[in-house]
Design goal:
Pfam family, one: Acyl_transf_3
Number of domains: 1
Strand order of the largest sheet: 1-2
Number of helices: 15
Protein name: Peptidoglycan/LPS O-acetylase OafA/YrhL, contains acyltransferase and SGNH-hydrolase domains
Order of helices and strands: HHHEHEHHHHHHHHHHH
InterPro entries: Acyl_transf_3_dom, Acyltransferase_3
Keywords: Acyltransferase, Hydrolase, Membrane, Transferase, Transmembrane, Transmembrane helix
Shape: globular
Strand content: under 5%
Distance between the termini: 10 Å
Helix content: 55-70%
GO molecular function: acyltransferase activity, transferring groups other than amino-acyl groups; hydrolase activity
Structural class: mainly alpha
Number of strands: 2
Radius of gyration: 22 Å
Length: 407
């Protein structure tokens, strides 16, 4: 029998925590010494980059699950965008302070917060000082579209990708352009077309406007959204298992192709995680005794995972550098950076994400003349399904328009 709508599946919380904290650990132990060699090594290193890709796949899966609900797009924008704005502003301010101390900058008009540097101490590896131009560009999510805008935090690359995907999904859904009959054509185009464009149009010597369009639309990542949709189709009986397997394999090859096969181990790791995602989508919940005992902690971490993702990288680098100057060991720097990600992610969720989401969704519902379904936003992550189970497809049915629920 289908579970009730109040049932929360711990398996999806586990996947959310796995994906986000894989990103955190990879950035602390691998990316930090790459960006800032003075930080040196850590007790271990996780060089596999699969966490963010997993997040996009899971996000696409739950787009299919939830897109038919009232106010779907506004609900996501209200949760993501204000939280992102807060993270950008906090990271900008802290980075300006930290880089001023690290490289001993002196400023002209505008002071330490907005002024241009007029002098700095010689440094073998100077830290990037973000400018007001960078701040505005990051707030508008134009880092890829406009040359010369620097990422205040490189983790932000997923934001414009997800927002664009949500908008496209919202435009396509009411028109029922995606249905059970033509879904394979759409899905395979997400794998094949970007690869063809990558080697025929978006070459290394292509004009900047071509690079901006290709990279701004994240065409090298759209196959990940296709994988999420394909897993949903399979989990609801709309795609055969062999077709899903071939599609995932092709998407993984496409992902590695876009990177010129320079990071195949990460692609293999992503393939393993996608197998786990399929198990979560098509199998029973992982509500076993051991997991049940850890459920409160897993659910709490999953609930703050978006905040953790937004706030962990640049500020973690700054904390590691500060502790290095104070003589901390690599293990101490790792522990502090990890703990900081959790604490700041919790604060961002508690002080910004949930209250602002509640305010915006209540205001939006009021303008439409009705009250929101619940006055308190759910603590589940933005990609967490509220319901489970799905009926068989009907001919010509939009695969996102059915009473779509995850099993």
């Amino acid at each position: 029998m289908p579970e009730t709508s109040s049932t929360r599946k711990i398996s999806w919380d586990i996947l959310r925590v796995l994906a986000v904290f894989a990103v955190v650990v990879e950035h602390i132990t691998h990316q930090a010494p790459v960006n800032h060699p003075e930080l040196g090594g850590y007790p271990f290193s996780l060089p596999l980059q699969f966490g963010a890709s997993t997040m996009l796949v899971v996000s696409a899966f739950f787009v299919c699950v939830t897109i038919g609900r009232r106010g779907w797009l506004w609900n996501r924008v209200a949760r993501l965008v204000p939280t992102y704005f807060a993270a950008v502003i906090v990271t900008y301010v802290v980075t300006r302070i930290a880089v001023t101390v690290f490289d001993r900058h002196a400023y002209g008009a505008g002071g330490w917060l907005f002024g241009a540097s007029v002098a700095s101490a010689p440094s073998a590896v100077p830290w990037l000082l973000p400018s007001p131009h960078d701040l505005l560009g990051n707030l508008l999510m134009m880092q890829v579209w406009v040359p010369g805008i620097h990422w205040i935090d490189a983790s932000y690359w997923t934001m414009p990708v997800q927002i664009a995907a949500f908008v496209v999904a919202a435009l396509l859904f009411p028109r029922r352009w995606l249905n059970a009959r033509n879904a394979p054509l759409w899905l395979w185009s997400l794998v094949i077309v970007p690869v063809v464009l990558r080697f025929t149009v978006r070459t290394d010597d292509a004009p900047q406007w071509v690079k901006s369009i290709f990279d701004g639309l994240a065409l090298n990542r759209v196959q990940l959204f296709g994988v999420g949709v394909a897993i949903w189709l399979w989990s609801t009986g709309r795609m055969r298992v062999w077709h899903l397997g071939v599609y995932i394999l092709a998407a993984l090859v496409a992902q590695d192709t876009h990177a010129y096969f320079t990071d195949t181990p990460s692609t293999i790791a992503l393939g393993v995680v996608l197998l786990v995602v399929c198990i979560a989508a098509g199998g029973r919940d992982w509500d076993v005794p051991f997991v049940r005992r850890l459920a409160p902690a897993i659910t709490w971490l999953a609930g703050i995972s978006f905040g953790v993702y937004l706030i962990h990288q640049q500020l973690g680098f700054i904390v590691a550098r500060t502790l290095l100057d104070l003589g901390a060991t690599p293990l101490e720097r790792f522990a502090a950076s990890f703990a900081l990600a959790v604490v700041l992610g919790w604060l961002l969720t508690k002080l910004v994400e949930r209250p602002v989401h509640r305010l915006l969704t209540q205001s939006h519902a009021g303008k439409l003349g009705r009250s929101p379904a619940s006055p308190v936003p759910s603590p589940r992550p933005i990609s967490q399904a509220n319901t489970v189970g799905a009926g068989p497809p009907t001919s010509g049915e939009s695969f996102a328009a059915a009473n779509s629920q995850s099993r």
